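Late entry, written up from scratch paper. The run itself happened at the end of the previous shift, but nothing got recorded in the book at the time, so transcribing now.
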Amino acid sequence: MGGLVEAEWYDVRRAQSGKPATYTCPFCPRKLPAFSEHVLIRPLGRGDGRRHAHMACVARAREQGRLPSREEWLRTQRQARRRSRGGLFARLFGRR
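Output as recorded:
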């Protein structure tokens, strides 16, 4: 994802600003004026590495599975933990 920090999950929220700034969408080479309706993407929910992007570009990336939310990422972690631990019987009797 060009210009976007690689992370396990992303926080995505709507953004719009009145300031005279122009951003470059990390998913396409087009410019994005700050006053237009767009989204702010924050890797791991933090401020460092945040990027502004077109709503349509983010929707496309989400459909392709390239921008997992924290909830989606946590779900995969729980599933992986369940698989690695085995069932109740295996955990109780130390069998894997």
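The longest strand covers residues 10-15.
(Scratch paper discarded after transcription.)
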